[in-house]
C-alpha cells in the first residue's frame, strides 16, 4: 500500500494525447483516436469512473484502486463520521482514516491525481474534436456529446480544486500552509495544451480554475443540453448541470465570505439557491421514501429503483471484482467479502439522530430489538446480532440482494448526485445569503415531509438562533443524509468544521481517534512526487505533508 508513485498522471495524459491514443472502458485496451468514434469516447468516461485498477496499483494488491467510488470512500474515511467497527487489518483506506503515509512519496496519491487528469484527458478529447464556433450548427447527437464532455470536465476540475486547495488549518500547530501556495488550485490542462507546456505548468489559482474552466464549462454544458432529454439516470442531464452549478456557487459563496467580500458572497449564495431549485424542478426527482431507503435489495445500489437520483454510474456484472468495488468495502451483508471491515457510523453522530427519523435504521442500534431491520440475508437476525458490531451500516446493500454472489452483488450503481442534496444546498444558501428564517423553514419542511415518521414535526428553530447554530444543525442532518456517499468532507473543509473521533466510550479504533478543532490538515491533499518530477514547477508549490501531525486522543 505504500509503494512510491513514480509516473505523473498529467504527463501520462499528455503522452496519450500527443500520440493520438485514448483509454477505452476496458483497462488494457488502447485505440487510435482516429479509429474511435465520439460515442465510444464519451461513453468511455462513465465506464472509466468505475474502472478497477485505474491507477495500476491493483496489480500490486492495492484494493483501494477502483476509481471514483474509491475516491468517495477515501474522503468519507477522513470525515470522522465513518468508523471501522470490525477488523482494521481489512481497511484498505486506513491511510486516509488515520492520517498516515499521505505524503507525495506514497501510492495513495495516485487515486485522485491519476484518475482525475485521465478523465480530463478523455473529456478534452471530445471537446477538441468538435467545432463549437456555432453550437446551433452542430449535429444534435454531437451537440449532446459535447455537452456531456463540458459537464464532465467541470465536475472533474471542481473536485480537483476542492481536494488540492490548501485551506488554512488553525487547530494543528505542527501544520502551516506556506504563503506561496495560499489560493492555489491545480494545473489547467486543455485540449491545446502541449507536452512542453505541461512540463512547466504551475498550479493555477483557485479563482482561475473557476473562472477559466468550471463556470465556462458549465455555461457551455447548459447551452448545449438546454433542449436535451436524458433517457436514464446514467446519462448527464440539464438537471445535473444545474446541480453542479448549485454546488460550485455554494463553494464560492463560502470562499467569498472567508475573504470578507460580503457582496460577492451573497450573490454567489443566491445563485446556489437558484440553481438548486432549478435542479429540483428540472429533474422531476423526489426524495427517497422510507421504503426505498430501507430496501434490502435495492438500497443505494440501483438508479432505476427510485426517483431520487439525478445522476449515477453503473458497474456492469462482467467488470465486477470481489475486492475492487464499492460494495466489497461498504456493504456489511456480503458473504463474499471481508473487505467491508464492518464500516459504521460514529456513535456520537448516531446518537444525535432523532428516534423518529427513519435514516437511523441505516445503522445497527446496540439494542437490536429497537427496530425490525430489513435484510437480504436469510439469517438476518442471527447475523446482525452475532456477526456485526454496534453501529455497523446496512445503508449500502449488495446489488439485487445477492449477498452470496460477488459478480451479481457487487454490480451496484453508484450515486453521484441525488435530489436531496439540492434541498440542503437551497436551505443553506438562502440562510447564508441573509434570510435565516427562510433557511430554517426550508430545512424544517424537508425533514418533516421526507424524513420523519409517524407525523412527527421536525423543528430546528431552537438550535438556529444564530446563523452558525443553523449551519451546525443543517450540517448534522446533511452528514446523516449523505453518510458514505463522498459528499461531506468537501462541506466540512468548506465550512471549517471539526473532526472528533476521540471521546469517552468512542467506537473508533485507537489508531483512528483523531480530533481536530476546525479544518483537518489531511483535507489538503498532497500532489504526487511523480508529478513534481515531470512538472518541476509544482515541486515548489506542493501542499505540506499532513501525515502524523494530528495527535491521537487517549
From TrEMBL:
Keywords of the record: Cell outer membrane, Membrane, Signal
One cellular component (GO) term of this entry: cell outer membrane
Secretion signal, residue range per the UniProt entry: 1-25
Keyword Magnesium: no
Origin: domain of life: Bacteria
Subcellular location: Cell outer membrane
RagB/SusD domain location: 386-528
InterPro entries associated with the record: SusD-like_N (IPR033985), SusD_RagB_dom (IPR012944), TPR-like_helical_dom_sf (IPR011990)
Predominant subcellular localization, coarse grouping: membrane
Span of domain SusD-like N-terminal: 72-250
A Pfam family: SusD-like_3
Family stated for the protein in its record: Belongs to the SusD family.
Protein's name according to its UniProt entry: RagB/SusD family nutrient uptake outer membrane protein
Organism: Candidatus Cryptobacteroides excrementavium
The organism's taxonomic lineage, starting at the top: Bacteria, Pseudomonadati, Bacteroidota, Bacteroidia, Bacteroidales
Amino acid at each position: 500500500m505504500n509503494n512510491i508513485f513514480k509516473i505523473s498522471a498529467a504527463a501520462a495524459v499528455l503522452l496519450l494525447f500527443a500520440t493520438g491514443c485514448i483509454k477505452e472502458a476496458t483497462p488494457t485496451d488502447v485505440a487510435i483516436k482516429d479509429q474511435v468514434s465520439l460515442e465510444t469516447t464519451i461513453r468511455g468516461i462513465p465506464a472509466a469512473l468505475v474502472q478497477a485498477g485505474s491507477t495500476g496499483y491493483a496489480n500490486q494488491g492495492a484494493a483501494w484502486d477502483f476509481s471514483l467510488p474509491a475516491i468517495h470512500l477515501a474522503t468519507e474515511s477522513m470525515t470522522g463520521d465513518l468508523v471501522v467497527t470490525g477488523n482494521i487489518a481489512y481497511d484498505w483506506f486506513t491511510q486516509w482514516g488515520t492520517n498516515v503515509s499521505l505524503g507525495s512519496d506514497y501510492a495513495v496519491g495516485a487515486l485522485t491525481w491519476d484518475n482525475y487528469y485521465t478523465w480530463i484527458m478523455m473529456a478534452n478529447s471530445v471537446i477538441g474534436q468538435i467545432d463549437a464556433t456555432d453550437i446551433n450548427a452542430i449535429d444534435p447527437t454531437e451537440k449532446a456529446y459535447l455537452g456531456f464532455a463540458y459537464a464532465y470536465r467541470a465536475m472533474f476540475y471542481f473536485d480537483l480544486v476542492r481536494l488540492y486547495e490548501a485551506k488554512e488549518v488553525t487547530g494543528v500547530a505542527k501544520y502551516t500552509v506556506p504563503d506561496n501556495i495560499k489560493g492555489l488550485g491545480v494545473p489547467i490542462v486543455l485540449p491545446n495544451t502541449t507536452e512542453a507546456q505541461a512540463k512547466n505548468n504551475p498550479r493555477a489559482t483557485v479563482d482561475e480554475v473557476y473562472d477559466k474552466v468550471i463556470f465556462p464549462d458549465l455555461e457551455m454544458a447548459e447551452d448545449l443540453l438546454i433542449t436535451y432529454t436524458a433517457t436514464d439516470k446514467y446519462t448527464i442531464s440539464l438537471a445535473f448541470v444545474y446541480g453542479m452549478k448549485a454546488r460550485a456557487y455554494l463553494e464560492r459563496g463560502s470562499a467569498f465570505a472567508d475573504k470578507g467580500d460580503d457582496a460577492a458572497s451573497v450573490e454567489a449564495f443566491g445563485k446556489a439557491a437558484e440553481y438548486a431549485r432549478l435542479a429540483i424542478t428540472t429533474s422531476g426527482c423526489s426524495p427517497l421514501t422510507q421504503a426505498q431507503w430501507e430496501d434490502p435489495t435495492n438500497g443505494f445500489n440501483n438508479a432505476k429503483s427510485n426517483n431520487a437520483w439525478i445522476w449515477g454510474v453503473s458497474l456492469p456484472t462482467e467488470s465486477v471484482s470481489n475486492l475492487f468495488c464499492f460494495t466489497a468495502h461498504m456493504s456489511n451483508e456480503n458473504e463474499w467479502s471481508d473487505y467491508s471491515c464492518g464500516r459504521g457510523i460514529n456513535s456520537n453522530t448516531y446518537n444525535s439522530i432523532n428516534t423518529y427519523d427513519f435514516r437511523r435504521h441505516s445503522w445497527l442500534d446496540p439494542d437490536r430489538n429497537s427496530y425490525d431491520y430489513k435484510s437480504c440475508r436469510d439469517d438476518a437476525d442471527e447475523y446482525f446480532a452475532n456477526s456485526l458490531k454496534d453501529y455497523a451500516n446496512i445503508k449500502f446493500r449488495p446489488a439485487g440482494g445477492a449477498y452470496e454472489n460477488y459478480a451479481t452483488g457487487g454490480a451496484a450503481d453508484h450515486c453521484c448526485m441525488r435530489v436531496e442534496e439540492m434541498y440542503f444546498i437551497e436551505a443553506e444558501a438562502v440562510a447564508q445569503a441573509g434570510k435565516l428564517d427562510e433557511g430554517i423553514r426550508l430545512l424544517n419542511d424537508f425533514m418533516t415531509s421526507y424524513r420523519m415518521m409517524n407525523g412527527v414535526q421536525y423543528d430546528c428553530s431552537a438550535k438556529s438562533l444564530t446563523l452558525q447554530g443553523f449551519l451546525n444543525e443543517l450540517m448534522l442532518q446533511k452528514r446523516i443524509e449523505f453518510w458514505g456517499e463522498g459528499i461531506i468532507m468537501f462541506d466540512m473543509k468548506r465550512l471549517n468544521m471539526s473532526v472528533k473521533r476521540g471521546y469517552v466510550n468512542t467506537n473508533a479504533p485507537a489508531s483512528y481517534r483523531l480530533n481536530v478543532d476546525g479544518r483537518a490538515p489531511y483535507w489538503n491533499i498532497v500532489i504526487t512526487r511523480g508529478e513534481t518530477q515531470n512538472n518541476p514547477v509544482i515541486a515548489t508549490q506542493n501542499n505540506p505533508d499532513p501525515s502524523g501531525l494530528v495527535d491521537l486522543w487517549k
